[in-house]
Structure formats: structure tokens, C-alpha cells
Amino acid sequence: MSQAGPNRSQLESVLNHYRTADDNPDKLRAAEFLVENMPAHYSHAGTGSDTIPDAQVIKASYLIDNIDKAYEQWTTCPWAEQISFDQFLEWMLPYKAVECQELDYWRDSLFARFGPCLERSLKNDVEYGTVMQVAEDMRIEAKRQLGRNHANDSSKYYVTTSVLMFRSAGLPCVMDETPVGPRSNAATSWFVLFGERGDEYKSEWDLSTEIEWGFFPYERGPKVYRNTYAINPERLEYKRKAKYQYPFDLCKKDVTTHYFLTTNISIPVKRTVLRGLKDKYVYIASAVRNDTHPWQIVDFGKLSHGNACFKDMGREVLYVIMGYDGKELIPITEPFILHKDESIEYVSADTISSPRLDRWKNNAL
Amino acid sequence: MKKVLLALTILLSAACNNNQDKQLQEALKFAGDNRPQLEAVLEHYRTVDNDPLKLDAAKYLIANMPAHYSYRDTAAINSFYSKALEILGTGPSGDWQRDTLREIGDKYYAGIMEDIIPDAWVITADYLIYNIDHAFNAWRTRPWSQHVKYEEFRERILPYKITERQSFDAWRDTLVLHYTDSLSKVPPTDLERNTIYGAIEIVRKELHNKELDMKFRILWEERNGIPMLSAATWVRMTYGDCRNFVDMGTSVFRSLGLPACVDFVPLWGRNNNGHSWFAFTSDQGRLERTINSMIEPAGQPFFPYDRFPKVFRATYAMNPRILDYNKTAKYRYKFDICQEDVTEQYNLTSDIDIELFDGIKLKDKYVYIGMFSATAEDKWKVLDFGTVKRGKAHFEKMGRNMLYIALRYDNAGLIPISKPFILHKSGKIEYIDLDDSSMRTVTLKRKYYESLNDVEMRRRILGARIQCANRADFSDARTLYTIQTTAIPDKIPLEPSGNYRYWRYLSADSTYGSVAEVEYFDRDGNILEGKPLACRAASADTIGLAQDGKWLTNFETGQPNDNWVGQDLGSARSVQAVRVIPRSDDNDIHPGHKYELRYMNSNGRWKSLGRKTAVDNVLEYDNVPVKCLLWLRNLTTGSEERAFIYNGPDDIVWW
Prior knowledge:
The complex is a heterodimer.
Chain A: H1 8-17, H2 25-36, E1 42-44, E2 51-53, H3 54-57, H4 60-76, H5 85-91, H6 106-114, H7 131-146, H8 155-168, E3 173-177, E4 189-194, E5 200-202, E6 225-227, H9 233-241, E7 252-254, E8 262-268, H10 271-275, E9 281-287, E10 295-304, E11 307-314, E12 317-324, E13 329-331, E14 336-338, E15 344-346
Antiparallel strand pairs in A: 1-2, 3-4, 3-6, 4-5, 6-7, 8-11, 9-10, 9-12, 10-11, 12-13, 12-14, 14-15
Helix pairs in contact in A: 1-2, 1-4, 6-8
Chain B: H1 2-31, H2 35-44, H3 52-63, E1 69-71, H4 74-87, H5 94-108, E2 116-118, H6 119-122, H7 125-141, H8 150-156, H9 171-178, H10 181-185, H11 196-213, E3 217-218, H12 231-234, E4 239-240, H13 242-255, E5 261-265, E6 275-281, E7 287-289, E8 312-314, H14 320-328, E9 339-341, E10 349-355, E11 366-372, E12 380-389, E13 392-399, E14 402-410, E15 413-416, E16 421-423, E17 429-431, E18 435-444, H15 452-458, E19 465-469, E20 478-482, E21 492-493, E22 500-506, E23 517-521, E24 531-534, H16 540-543, E25 564-573, E26 577-581, E27 594-600, E28 606-613, E29 619-627, E30 630-634, E31 643-646, E32 652-654
Parallel strand pairs in B: 3-4
Antiparallel strand pairs in B: 1-2, 5-6, 5-8, 6-7, 8-9, 10-13, 11-12, 11-14, 12-13, 14-15, 14-16, 16-17, 18-29, 19-20, 19-22, 21-26, 22-25, 23-26, 24-25, 27-28, 27-30, 30-31, 31-32
Helix pairs in contact in B: 1-3, 2-3, 2-7, 4-5, 9-13
């Protein structure tokens, strides 16, 4: 509210709307959720790359329109009936899927463009009205209209389009991603639908592959994050307390365990190194195939009793741990491979560019 | 605090060990005269091969052994298998082999399936040691299983059998020998081969190709006779149900140190049958599920349109919950002791508390949850037991989006004790109330729900034309009727047209000519029987299918367009009406069949609303309670029937 400044009245009128004109506790709670987490979201400010917080520009009518439509779909669409209220907040409600998305009436425009195909779906008592049927019909239609298959540079665009398109039809959908760049032809982000039996339906290649026909069964990775509207409290705490500020996005949730075997690791740091550190926060970086920037930071952890501790790390990945010495981030352990059997193998930092280690460098999935 | 926690952990694990030790002692006692064999195994892993983990594995196998059993008369079953080996792969087909062996089984081996003996009484130390050593060797040396935890190994690699009555033979060696050609051709450095996912896929493919070479067939019929449960017959198995093939294939994986398990749904959420498949945890930690025995690889949508009330995993270990039930239930319903409830890995579930009928008196603390099944004796199939808590029936981990009922079980059989209820996708419970304060008319077109495939096949009649001609090539054809809707009358009246010798059904483009029946009637309503004719694309065996009286066989060709099927009536005749039956599952109202509509009364019992022989493709009942659960039975034939709620002729919700 305080971030909103002069726009505060717009936000207040949304809350008031769901207390008076449309007295609905669920919608009020939904509005509160959007407002509470709004400080992490921003839009384009005029021209150029300047941004402005959503809280300062968003209109009451726009929020109400989004809340009403999402709520209507959640309470009436058979393919959203399995969604709990808490899930509704993330999978259906948000008025945007990515930052700097235009605050336009995308639910209407995307459904007008990709929704009419659903009127042609044949009614029956089995497939009709299920998440899979509605999503597959729309996916095929969008692929037909957009005419292109996956391409590295535009996959994110296709995935964003998919997520918004699915949400426009009341399908519960989110976007997951890896924090490391692409390796050859693999994806860096993809959509996830929540099926009626609780399955998370994925598609390997944005719009071009059938949903749930396998998802990179041989790939490994350090982390998988889910884009959320909610602010991640651990990351908020990091932002408030860390002496060094790495630009972690506040709106990500760790879902690595949905994709990989993971391990909570606790790596000893030499006492001499520990003495030089100026912060309890430490960083874990995954090796990537890039000679100038061989390490990609994927998460933060904390020092505890001389150990650097990280949660839910993907196995079969080459890592190094970094710490803040008061000036910059420096490696504080030797690089190591976290093996499939959870054993840890240290490798010498000098050999990091050796092709022998290539298979442990994980770019994307 | 930390010390307290540590002490607690030790105490708990000691309790666990105590439990296994207690079970072990009971099992050793249970073994009776065979006890020395089991003790010899334990002794072996304390002295000759001093390996604490193997010793623990041996204890695990022995402690859970009392639930497992084998054929008592091994000479008899082995002679049956010898006979099977003579017959498998010979003769015209797998069906023939099945029939022949079933006949032999019925004649010479009647009752052998029930003549069983506990494993603990007959198993030898050598056999257990062979299995334990082989399993450990595979687990410790195969590249794909190095990361597999002991707990997973114990259930998914170690057990000396995958199913009851399995022969105590050297199955691990036999299967490794038979199914590793492909694996040995992939370089050992191949990264994919060295994953569970990759290795299972390589082996599955080889296994399936060998099945194809043997012209195998999965036979869903219930009576497949005595199953093939020895290594020698497994590698030659040409027929069996999905469980037989999955058991065999999973054993192949286990023999190679690939941890795999058998999961099954005892009853689908909306039909009378169940299904089994193999599953495994990939190197990524994901539960990979397969859909069709060894035929399909992992990584496909897993029945996205089906419903799972309960899913169980076949285990070697005994389930303590069911053991406890068996000890404390006054009236014991039969539940398999060696299974684990894994419904949560397949469906959203709810723990539910169900209101019971007023004044219900129970003779036992246990209650049961059932699902409708048209073929079950009591019309309810029991899925699980629960207990009464605060006057309500409490059931755990029930799959959502299905209709259930609470039952009691005692010397009176299975009796409903609650209204039927729907556990919705959201987890909300909706009771189906009966309101018979007024009656209404219902119009029924089907007895079973309709899938997309049914709808698509039905639509193949759209655009079809009924034509008559005097020339056999239909060059002078007259169109008398064009089908414009799938809601056609049973007998389509034709405009009076005079007499013609040749009549045909000319299908629209992109329909492959599909049609189940086309019948022509004279003015007295008699069927005119002629010689079948068809377009050139029709194969000889398909030409007669549109007039064979069987609605499940269809006329169809391999080309999408320009198809027709007709009749030469021998002489010029007048046709008054034509009956067109689309390709379908034959669950539409079938004229001539006898039906009975039933509703569920306030005691949870099915009551008849009358029997009728259908004279049209719709059926009407005018005495139906305005609100109730209905069930339309076809008394003439078939078993595909589901309970439903009627909201209007075109708004029926099937459960």
C-alpha cells in the first residue's frame, strides 16, 4: 500500500469492492494476495527499459476484472475443480505471468483467439471437459495459428503465450524453468498444467509436442524453479539480511524435487577461508559450458558450524561454493561433483575447462 | 535437545528392529520342520559370508515369508509346465494354445491352483542364498543400480519371487541369459544405458520384440487357465493377462538389478475391470509408469481420462495395517496382505467421514467402502476397509471424482450403510439423496457412458445416402435419404419409390465407410435378405459385416472416400424403411433386447422400475423418482453398465 503512493486508492477500492459491492471472502482474500505480493512486480514505464512498480500504475477495474474472471473459471470450469484455494492463487488468479507484461485484457483477447476451437470439441462422457482434452485442443490450435515450432531464442515467448492462453480458458497453469542457460537444443522454461488427478502435465517443447509425452528422461540439473506471483519469504529474508546482494528473483519457488533426485548437502569450508568471509550467506554455482563464465550461481545457502549448507540440490552436477569476502564473491571450496549415489567427488579447479568434465556441466535440462 | 532427539531415534529404530525381530521369530516358529533351512541362511551370512547387509536382507525375506505360498504338488505343476512347453508356440495361434492348455489343465490338473503350501515350509537354504547373492551381486555391480538405496533394493530387486506359486527355479540366470542381447551391444560407456530409465527401455524393447516373434497375445478373458509361473515357461509365454506379462517382465528387470515394481488398480473408477502395469523410480527420482504390459515404453500420458479409486503396489513385505485388520476383525473380508496403498502417487485423495443411515447397528468396528460394479455379486466391489469414528465411517486416501458407498460386512454379506456419495475432484462429498415424492418420465438412449472414440465412430454415418438402382453398378442410382444427424430413428422411413433390385448405403468422404449394420425392411416390417455387394475397396471378409446381425462387427475399408455397401435383393423390391446402425460399442438401446431400469432405494438397495423389451432405439420409463441413482441393465447380453444420474435426455452423468 505504501509503495503504491498516489495509486493507493485504486488498490483500496479493490479491497472495498469485495467487502461491499461483491461481498465475497474468497475474492477478498484473492485481492489481498495480489496486493500483498504486488511490490515484487513491475511494468514498463513509458518508453525505453525503465520500469515502474505495478502498485503505482495498476487500475482497480483491471484487478477486479482479473479476479472476477479467474474466480468464475475456478468455480465453474470442470477442468479447474481439483484446484484448492491456495493453488488457485498461483495457478489461475495472477493478472500476469511475466514482468513487463502489458496490463491489458489478455484473458479476453487470448481466449477470443485460441478459445473458439473448444466449441468444436465433440461432447462425450470420457475425454470431454478434462484438463488434457481442453489443453491439447488449445495447444494444437495455437501451434496451427502461430505456425512455428520451438526455437531456442523464442521458447520463452511461446511458453509465456501458452501459460496465458491456458489460463484464459481457466486451465490451471504455471511456468517452470532452470536457472542455467540452454545446452544444445534443450528448454529453459516450459509450462506445467495441473491435472485432475494431481499430475503436473508438462510438454517437452512448448507448443510443438504433445502434452505428457515424456519430459527429458536423461537430463540432469542443479535446480528447477517455478515462477510464482507470491514473494518467496526465504528470498525476501535474504534480500533484507544479505550483505552481498545477488539479484535473485523474489518470485520463484524451488520445485527441484518434482524433477530430480536431490540431496541436502553440507560442505565443509576450510577454517582459513571461513575467517575471510563477511557474510553467513553462501552461494552455490553450477558448472556451465562457457569458457568465460564457467559458473552460474543457482541458489544461496547459509553457513552452519563451518559447513556451507544447501537444500534440494540436483545430483550428477559439478558445483562450486562461493562466499562474500567483503569485496566480491570468491570460491570457498574446490569444485565438486555431487554424484547420483550422493557421494561427493572434489576436482581440481585448474582442470575445470577439461572436456573430461563436460558431462557434469549442466546447462538447462 | 539434540541428545534427546538422538535417543529417541535410537529407540524408534530399535522398536523397528524389534518388530522385524519379533516377526522373524514368529516366521521361524511358523516354519516348523523347515526351520533349520531358514536358520542355515542366517548362519551363512554370519559366518561363511559375513555380510551384515545380506544378513539383514535374509531376515527381511524370512520375517515376511509367512504370507507367501507355492504349489504343494511341485511334480504335478512341473509336469503341466512340460506339457506347456510342448504346446507353446505351436498350432495356429496363442488362443489355440491357451484353449488347449486350459483343457489339459481342467482335465488333469483340476484344483491345483488351490493346492498350496507356505513357502516357509518348503523353501531351501540354498535357494534363498542363491537369490540373495544374485540380487546383491546385480545391485552392487550393475552400473545403473549403484545409487539405489537399500530400502528400495529390498522390495524391488531382492525378493525371490514376484508372485505367488512361482517356481523355485534359477529364474534370475535364465532371464538374464534370455534378455541381454541388446544391452550387451550398447557400449558400457553409454550414459543413457547406464540409467535405470535407459536400461529398462533397452531390455523392454528386446523383450517385446521377442514376444512379437512368438506371436504373443494379451488375453483379457478371465479364464486363462493355469498361468505360466516358471522361468522356462516365462521365456516362451505366448498368452496371458496383463498381470502375467507384467510379472514376467518385472522379473527380467529385477534379475538385471533394475528396480521395478508392479502397481495395479483393482477396479477402475468407472468400469468392471482392473489393470496392472510396471513402474519404476527413474534416476531423476520420478515414478515412471507404463500403460500396457511390456508393449509400451515409459514416458507416455498415463491414462489421463481414467479414474483411480485405489492403486496398490504388490510388495514382498506384509502390510502391518492389513495384518492388524486380520487379527482384530470379527468378520474378515479378504484383503491381500502383500500390498501397499499408493493411491496418492496416482490420484488426488481425501480422507473421508461418511454419514451412516440412522439407527444402523454394526457388529464389527470395521466398515467397508465399495464401488458400483455391474458384474460383482453384491453389485459393490470392496476397495478398502475403514473404521467407525464418532458415528461416521472413516476411510483413508480415497481417490476423487468417483461414486462410492459405505458397507458393512458380516454373516449377512455386504450391506449398504450409507447413501451413495460422490467424492468430487475438489474433495467435496455429495450424497445422492432419494426423492420419490413425485415421479417423472425418463428417456434413455444408452446404458453406458460414451467415449470420444464412440462419438467419432458414430459420426461416420453423417452424410451417408441410401440409394436404390436397377443397375448393379448404381449408374442409375436414386438417393432416397441422406443422414444428417446421429439421432436417427431406429427405422428410417423412406419415401415411396417403387421397386428396385439394388440398394446401398453410400458413405460420405473421410469415413472409411464404417457402419455396423444396414437393414432393409418391406412394408410388413420384414427384413429383406439379399446378396451383399460393396465397393471395390472392401475386402472379401468385410462385405457381409453390414448384414450379419452383429452390431459389434463393422463394414469398413482401408480408403477414406468412395465407399459403399449394399444388397442385391434378387428382384426389384420396394423398401419401406432402412435401419442404419453406426459403428459403436453396442451400448445404445438395442431393439429386441430386454432391459430393466433400477433405482437405488433409501436402504441402498437396487429396486426394479420394470422390465421392457426395447422396440425402438430409445427406452422410456414414466415412473422414475425425481431424484435418484439409476442403473439400466440389459438382461439379454453384455456387462458394460454404469450407475447414472438423470438430468434430462441429453444430460446424464455417469458414475
